[in-house]
Specification:
Distance between the termini: 8 Å
Shape: globular
Number of strands: 7
Oligomer: single chain
Helix content: 40-55%
Number of helices: 13
Structural class: alpha/beta
Largest sheet: 5 strands, mixed
Order of helices and strands: EHHEHHHHEEHEHEHHEHHH
C-alpha cells in the first residue's frame, strides 16, 4: 500500500493542541485507510480532511474517497501544475489574478481573491482558470491551514463572448470537487462587479451547486457600497487596494502567488505521483 507523505509546513500535533481536531479522530481515519485501496495519508493530510468536515468521521471518509476519485477521473484539472514548464498554467496567470490573501479573517478564515486581468475572451481558458483556482488551496494550507475559505471574484471586464468559453463538464467536475472532495470548506462566495454576462455564467454554475453553496453565493453590481461590504462580508485588511482595501495591488499579490506556486512545484509533483500510483 502506498504511503502518501507530502511536504506540509505545519504539524498535525499543533492543530490537535489547538483543539481543531483530535488524535482519536486522526487514528480512526488512518485505521480505516488500511482497509481500503487508498494511499495511507500522513497525519497532516488527515487533519485537513477532518477540519473540512467539522471532524465528522463519516463525512471525512466520504470526502477522502471523493478526493481521489474525482482527481483520478479529471487529470486535465488536477495534473501538470508546474508554473514554469506548463504553458497553459503560465499563460493562465496573465489572464486572471489568483491571490491567496496573506491576511486572514477572524476565526482563521482564509480569503482567495480572483480578478480578470485580460478582457480578451480568446485568451480565457476555463480549464486553466479552474485548475489554478483549485491550486490556491495548497498555498493557503501550507503553513497554518484555515478553518474555512471565502472566495471573492472581481468580474469586471467579463463579456458575453466569455460565455462561449464555458466548459460544462470541467465546471461540473470542479464544483463537485469543491463541494465533495476538497479538504477545505467554502464559507462564502462573493462576486463583485457582476453584470449580465456574469449572471449568465453563474446560472450555469448554479446547476451544479448544492443548496448550502447556493445560499453562500452573493453577487454585487458595479458601484456597490464597498464600505458596507467591508462591514458585512470581508474587512478591508483582507482586500487589495483596487477594492479600497489595505493590501498591496492585485498585480503584486498575483506575483506573490506565482512565487508561491513555484515553491510548491515539488509538492504538486509528489502529490500527483503518489496519487497516480494508488
Amino acid at each position: 500500500m502506498v504511503k502518501m507523505v507530502l511536504p506540509f509546513k505545519f504539524k498535525a500535533e499543533t492543530i490537535i493542541k489547538e483543539r481543531r481536531t483530535t488524535q482519536s479522530a486522526v487514528d480512526e481515519i488512518k485505521d480505516w485507510l488500511k482497509t481500503t485501496s487508498l494511499p495511507l495519508l500522513q497525519d497532516e493530510f488527515v487533519v485537513l480532511f477532518l477540519m473540512s468536515c467539522k471532524n465528522n468521521v463519516s463525512d471525512t471518509k466520504n470526502t477522502i474517497q471523493a478526493y481521489f476519485r474525482i482527481k483520478k477521473n479529471a487529470p486535465h484539472l488536477f495534473n501538470h501544475r508546474d508554473i514554469d514548464s506548463d504553458d497553459d498554467v503560465r499563460k493562465g496567470m496573465k489572464v486572471m489574478a489568483y491571490c491567496s490573501i496573506p491576511t486572514s479573517m477572524d476565526n482563521n478564515v482564509a480569503v482567495h481573491f480572483f480578478k480578470l486581468l485580460d478582457n480578451n475572451y480568446r485568451n480565457f481558458d476555463m480549464i486553466t482558470v479552474l485548475k489554478l483556482s483549485i491550486m490556491l488551496t495548497d498555498i493557503s494550507q501550507r503553513y497554518n491551514p484555515p478553518n474555512e475559505v471565502v472566495l471573492v471574484a472581481d468580474m469586471k471586464g467579463l463579456g458575453l463572448m466569455h460565455l462561449t468559453c464555458i466548459k460544462i463538464e470541467a465546471l461540473r467536475t470542479c464544483l463537485e470537487f469543491l463541494q465533495e472532495g476538497t479538504p477545505l470548506k467554502i464559507k462564502a462566495i462573493h462576486v463583485l462587479n457582476a453584470n449580465y454576462a456574469t449572471e449568465k455564467m453563474l446560472a450555469v454554475a448554479k446547476l451544479f451547486m448544492k443548496s448550502d453553496l447556493l445560499t453562500a453565493t452573493k453577487t454585487y453590481p458595479p458601484g456597490a457600497d464597498m464600505d458596507q461590504f467591508y462591514k458585512d462580508c470581508i474587512p478591508a485588511k483582507c482586500l487589495p487596494k483596487e477594492c479600497g482595501g489595505d493590501l498591496p495591488s492585485i498585480e503584486e499579490l498575483n506575483e506573490r502567488s506565482i512565487e508561491q506556486f513555484r515553491e510548491l512545484k515539488e509538492f504538486f509533483k509528489e502529490e500527483e505521483s503518489l496519487r497516480n500510483v494508488s
